[in-house]
Amino acid sequence: MAFTSNFRRPTTIREAANNIRDVKASQLRLRQRGEFAAARDLDAEIEHQQAERQRLADEYNRDLDETWGS
Fold this sequence. Notes:
Blueprint (H helix, E strand, L loop, with lengths): L12 H20 L3 H33 L2
């Protein structure tokens, strides 16, 4: 089954970081309740949001290089 994110696609690095923080908090709550399988399922969401954050950072750096030269 393909992964589907529960968040809309972030448009800023801060938004992606906030999404990661929210997912990790949810994961912690699930683990504290003993729902380890559900907490493990959120690993894919965390990886997805980290990839989105990296994509945004790369895009930002590329824009800086185009503006100021490398």
